Amino acid sequence: MNRTITGNLTLTARGTDSLLRLPNVTRASVPDFYQLEVFADGGGRVELPALASVSGALDLYAEGPGSVVDLSGWVGALNNASQGTTFLEARSGGTVLIPNVTSLDRVNLTIRGAGTIPTGQLTALTQSRVVVDGTDVAFGSLADTTGTTFEYLNGGTATFPRPADLVVTDIRSPAAAQAHQPVEVVWEITNRGSALTNGLWSDALFLSADSAAGADEFIGLFTAQASLPSNASRRFTNTVLFPASLAGTRYVVVAVNQSRSVFEGTDTANNTNISAVPIQIQAPDLVVDSVFPQPSPATLGQPLTVSWRTRNVGTAAAAAGWTERVTLTRQGAAPGSSTRLLDRPATSPLAPGASETRTVTVPLPLVAGAVAGAHVVAVEADVTGQVREVIETNNTASANLNVVLPPLPDLVATSLRGPATALPGESFPLVWGATNRGAAPARSAWVEEVELQRLTSPASRQPILTARFTNDLAAGAFLARTQQVTLPADLSAGDYEFRVELDSANELLESDEANNGVASSTLSVPAILTLQWAVTAIREDAIPPTAVVLVTRNGNLSNDLTVTLSSSDVRELTVPPSVTLPAGRASAQFTATVLQDGIPDADKLVTITASAPNYRGGAATVTVLNTDLPRLRLALATNTLLEGLTLSATVSHDGPERPALAIAFNTPNPTQLLLPAGVTLPAGQNSATFLIAATDDTLVEPPRQVSVQASATGYQPAAAAFTINDDDLPAFSLTLATD
Distances in Å between the alpha carbon of 316 and those of 209, 284, 286, 350? Predict the structure, then answer.
């Protein structure tokens, strides 16, 4: 649990068996000049076993036998970074438990009488005040007491580790060293204290501009390890890289035990020493002077010759491989807007005091946006920072150069013409002219862009055509463009104009860049309704028998709009009488319903229309696919027939005319009837007559019901029934009796 307090927070346990335990508090925060106060007295106990961080000051106080303030969960450093004061005090048998705290900084530590605060584990007690009153306190591990004062009252004492006293007794370095190259520096450390040093510490190395230590340039920390008994010495050799920025006469300064890892008590004032003999730090320093551009004035698009001299004013050679850059910048231009003309590698080293003159010829680029006038040609040595130099900011020199433009083309757009009115989504030609009024041909390719902008909102431009043209246009020449454009399908009603911009991508450098555009006369887009089907065709037997249609307006959306709907063939397709587009909405959906009429006719193209006041109506078509099959019909001349006779039958259909139709006949009574296998109706004929014969047998039979069936591909079949009467008589025999 974290807790932020806006003032002092006081936690108190007073009296025997009084316990305040807060096991879930891990962090507390109080403002500057306020404290987290934790008090235990009279045998009370306050336990904060999980507290590990306090933003602000602490006041821990335990007085009386059995009184305990427990911060045993705090591990490592207990540092006071606030503006307030942190107090730790134990007296008269009270205990402040900080067994895992190893470092105290900016703390008032007080131990009185039989009070107890663990101190044997402390390795650092810095910038603090310690009061020992009437007791003995052991600081057995203390190594760093920088800035701490100790006060002893009423016979109080403190014991410390025996201090060492490390002193730098000798520093040796070569007479000269090249910057950023390894060099060995040796210094001797002597222990003038009474304790054995047995461990690691860090020594700091500095460079001084004079022979007195102080305000020196830090070079680095170097780890040392040695067991130095009293009055013993040891030399340490370390490899050092000196920076080029400190080139010149310098003295080496060494501060031993900079990390305060070795306990020296208060004997740290003698830890720093300075070399008696200086060292010369050598480094190159490249400068550029004498920049001469020719000719002047220089013409863009033509060669420019640049000469310059590079000198090494440093004390060490500059190794080969650095890069020298030539740039051109318009005077007054924003930083970073330079044009790079050349990067030239230096292929040979340059000794101290030496110089080299270079001459190069480079083209002055003629690019879109180039302007004539005052420019600066600059040369910078070691532009990539490869050479470590004494001064890194003196590598550039420059010269003024007047730049002129060559003869240039000048594209001018003229007479953009388009329709006076057009509908959203409509395509039509636009015509405009392009004239080169410049003194030079317009060569290579450029882009011409057509934009549409609303007159009431000039900033609302939208591109509707971007065309790239590759033909040259001579100086003084004219050509006409004719391009097909299409208005956006969702274009709102209103007055617009087209605007064409020649060389819209600024690929050509022209003498006048401000005359490339021209606008058309006004284009009026009326308020219209549009209809859009979700399908292009629908079957008569569709399930469900509906399709969605979207109606859209391009006019004012501030009010509801009621749109009247109609269908061109209500026997095939119906729509609702109207649909309402709510305010703020440009479109709405409605449902069209297809009808199955049972008539075998052709597919029908049905048009639905939409209309509303002050809007041009809209229409959309859909194909209703016929799913009804035409029928065959059979007609008999009579419904009874005597055996051995025939009757006339007619087969016909109610379908559309067709080239020819093959019709097949069959019967479920093949022993009773004789009929043809079929007939073919010629083109343009929809019926035919054929004969049906009743089989003549010798059997005496009752009247029989028989049927005939007709079928054809793509047609519903037909059937007819009739009765056959028997013509056979039964045989009789007459036998006469005798007397």
Answer: 19, 5, 11, 9
Q: Tally Cβ neighbours within 10 Å of residue 173.
A: 21
And the tokens for 249?
Answer: 């006469």
Angle at 231 between CA 226 and CA 235, to 5 degrees: 45
AA letter at 722: F
| Contact call for residues 90 and 96 (beta carbons, < 8 A) | yes
Cβ(340)–Cβ(360) below 8 Å: no
For CA atoms 342, 348, 352, 358, give the dihedral sign.
negative
Contact 394, 381 (CB under 8 A): no
pTM of the entire predicted model: 0.55
> Side chain identity at 374, as an amino acid letter?
A
Report which of 659, 648, 640 is spatially closest to residue 726, judged by C-alpha positions: 640
Q: Report the distance separating Cα 607 and Cα 618, nearest Å.
A: 10
281 CB-near residues (< 8 Å, 6+ apart): 176, 177, 178, 179, 207, 242, 244, 246, 247, 248, 250
Q: What is the dihedral of CA 284, 285, 290, 294, to 10 degrees?
A: 80
CB atoms closer than 10 angstroms to residue 283? 26
- The stretch 647-663 carries a mean pLDDT of 87
pLDDT of residue 4 exceeding 60, the answer is no
Residue 290 has, within 13 A of its CA and on its CB side, a CA count of 10
CA distances from 96 to 14, 74, 117, 119 (A): 15, 12, 5, 11
362-407 per-position pLDDT tens digit: 999 988 778 889 999 999 999 999 999 999 999 999 999 999 999 9
Phi, psi of 245 (to 5 degrees): -65, -15
Which residue's structure tokens are 């110089």? 355
Which residues, in sequence order, are CB contacts of 104 under 8 Å at separation 6+? 77, 78, 79, 88, 122, 124, 125, 126, 128
How far apart (Å, rounded) are the C-alpha atoms in residues 649 and 81? Answer: 119
Task: Please give the Cα distance from 29 to 56 (Å, whole number).
Answer: 6
Using DSSP, state whether 245 is helix, strand or coil.
helix
Q: How far is CA 602 from the centre of its chain?
A: 57
Report the range out of 77-81, 502-506, 621-625 with the highest average pLDDT: 621-625
Give the tokens for residue 67: 């009184």
Partnered with residue 569 across adjacent β-strands are none
CA angle 433, 435, 436 (to 5 degrees): 160
- Residue-wise DSSP of 569-611: -TTTEE--SEEEE-TT-SEEEEEEEE---------EEEEEEEE
d(C-alpha 58, C-alpha 9), whole Å: 10
Q: Provide DSSP, 373-390.
A: EEEEEEEESSTT--S--S
Token representation of residue 470: 């590759």
Model pLDDT for residues 596-645, shown as the tens digit of each residue: 888 888 889 999 999 999 999 999 999 999 888 888 999 999 999 899 89
